[in-house]
Amino acid sequence: MGIGLAQAASDSGAASRQLIQFAIPAQSLDSAVLAYAEQSGVQVFFDSRKLAGLRSEGLRGGYSAEDGLRQLLRGAPVRYRFSAAGQVGLERVEDNGEVMELGATHVNSNREGDWVYLTPRSTSVITREQIDKRPPRHAADMLEETAGVYTAVDQRDPGLSVNIRGVQDYGRVNMNIDGMRQNFNVNGHQQRNGVMFIDPEFISSVQIDKGSQSGMGGAGVLGGIASFNTVQASEFLGPDKEYGGRIRAGHGIGELGNGTYFNGSAVFAFGNEVGDVLLGVSERHFGDYRAGSNDTDNLGTQIRLKDQFPQAWQDWIDSEVGDMSSVTRSQMIKLGLNLPLDQRVQLSYLQTDTDSKDAWTWQSADSNSWYYRRSASNDITAKNVAFDYSYSPDNDLIDLKAKLYYVTTRQDRWNAGSTASIGSGNYYAPYTDRFQTDTWGLQLENTSRFYLGQRDSLSVNYGTEMFQDTFKPSSEMVPARSNSSNPFAGGANPEGKRIMASLFADLTYEHDDWLTLDAGLRYDRYRLTGKTGLTTYMYPTGITQVDLLKQRTELLYDVDQEQGRFSPTFGIGVKPGLDWLQLYTRWGRGWRPPSVTEAFMSGKPHGGGNELVYPNPFLKPETSHNWEVGMNIFKESLFRSGDRFAAKIAYFDTRIDNFSFLDTNVDLPGTDGATGVSMGRSAYQNNLQDTRFRGLEYSLDYDTGRFYTRLSYTHMIGSNDFCSKQLYLGGAQKKNISGTEIVELPIGGGMTIPVPMPVYDAVADADLDAQTRCGDIMGNASYMPADRGSLTAGLRFFDNTLDVGARLRYSKGNGANLESHGYSQLDQALWPQYKVWDLYASYWATPQLNIALSMENLTDQAYFVAMGDSNNLSLARGRTLTGMLEYRF
């Protein structure tokens, strides 16, 4: 069929040569146009019915807005015309070149994230528009409306730990900024073992890919990939626009500001067809805030011992959450250069500095109130440096991307001294320590595309990735007297190094817009090096004597271990005769070797006290088997002309073998008696039971242009048992009578008599080594995450310049321990049910100036975020009103 392309009007601005980086796979033409609109920022008008049955070969590489559209439409009987800057209309032509009659409806396809509902796998996108509707105070706020995603929130700690479908920590979820892995870890109360620091002001979008991944970023991943994409210069540049940017300034309003002080940013970009520069700065200030005071009965009777000290509990509810002040400052620089032959290089630098406090609540002497006492002050600096290269010529076999990056995160922490008396032997003075994680990474991938006639296409994505984590802790602590004799009690954050390297390939086959098949295979290999050890008491071996006694024994481990594994994935997507419905299923395997902390940590986690953490250099890698089944719905003009309905529903089932968890009651080599009586002696162990995370996810989106609504919900199913060997390193002993020996016993007066005495030696006790025990676990996996969801409804007025709406955030909660604490295990399921209402409004007074208001927690509910840090027990903010001004130029 012939091609009919209209020349853009000379004054439309569409002929600008500003390059945009496109990544649109081969697919149906209407879907490809949606992706083009999202990536280019161009508003596209078309009648999707007239594009039915047409396909696009896709688009990869750097193009101007017009050149990209021309390439996307090549071979299709469609012509385009730019009617104004940033707006284009599409028309389908007959064989004779005449325009087909269009229906009365043109569809505005410039909607971010619509591709999610056209993709046969579980993925989610959080757009900048969604983020701005509820300005985040904590980075975790950005993820609260996303199905299948949780965060273990410590309101004091700005660090973000992402949980996908119940799985988190130690790299099980690849948390990255522009592809750079964030593997910083400071061991604490097991709610967050691996955090990242990202300034929401610099976020352009967040993409969540769930389950095992066979492509880039999938090495060591069991739960999924959380990609935080920062702003690019192209977002502020456009046709005939060589500079641009935005300035944002926000603040709490009056008494309802509730500890929300200045937060804002400035981003400036300039460039042309040769290259571009992006500069950004941000600053955020927060302070003590008042929690909600309504529906406090939802919190149960055990939090802050309400049943025992009701007056103190009420004082806690009425008082501000203390020592919450924090300051975050960020800077960003990106330098891009467009080279000949469709090449581009970019150097980027992102730094975030944040100061925060740690505090615990203490009861007053008269037991009538709770107060906050500072336990630590933190100064954290996270630096990210990356060099990117891309080569995307007009060749279906080459779409090359490479990245070299370095991430270093350092935490300097002042720690309060012990509250124990000096005479107890457990006292230690205030001290400072430092935790640093350095990550080097290299990524290289290419995509080749093959077109097998008019209806079939095959794409192959293949490449390699590798990264190295180096942990560098140090401390000025002078150990308590009870701790000083143990050479392996210097802290729970060990030195060590882990290297992972991966080769991968992922094939995707598409047939006639109704069938999609994909299959992937990756090979991961790791090397773990470090030194650790522990102190125990054992009977000497190879010795036979009457008075055989245990001796202090130092077990030292110089670890250098290496291992590799293949992990496959497979998926299928089918449209069963309906263009708006797609069914899909996926299956995959994942593999995660142990981290430095899990294998080598050894010491007292609080600097003093009786708790001890022991290393496990023999920890086995985890393997996962996950599958899911789901459906996508994407239907335009469903109830009325021009509306749009989209839905994504999935059931998932992830089984992890050898799941690593912190066992809080272990016994050491040399044990020869009762076992399981030492709560507080902990080590990481592999679960002897299968660990499963199952559930259902719902994401629904309806938009008429004037009215819109979104619903997301996550329902988790089942629970897990955690069982392990009681003597986690083996080494059980028993004294064995190996014979008798004549011993001269004194009877007085210098005289002795010969007496036959039993002689002992030490032998292994296989029965004791085989003992197992269940239920002794500390960590976020102790309970399934509580079900939660959100419902948003809004209206647009005055040509979409005014957007007002309301949001309901809901969690079913997990109240297993809200009314009674059972200390058979250390963690408690302190996740009460909540319903929280938010209001928001956004008004673009001019195309450049936006005024936004947000009222969070309208009804002043007392609540914790679902799966929040139960050990911190800092309630979320009460009723809070903030405003934000944004100016774009």
Automatic annotation (TrEMBL):
Secretin/TonB short N-terminal domain span: 42-93
SUPFAM superfamilies: Porins
Location(s), subcellular: Cell outer membrane
A Pfam family hit: TonB_dep_Rec_b-barrel
Family as reported in the entry's similarity comment: Belongs to the TonB-dependent receptor family.
UniProt cross-references to PANTHER family, sorted A to Z: HEME_HEMOPEXIN UTILIZATION PROTEIN C, TONB-DEPENDENT OUTER MEMBRANE RECEPTOR
Protein name: TonB-dependent hemoglobin/transferrin/lactoferrin family receptor
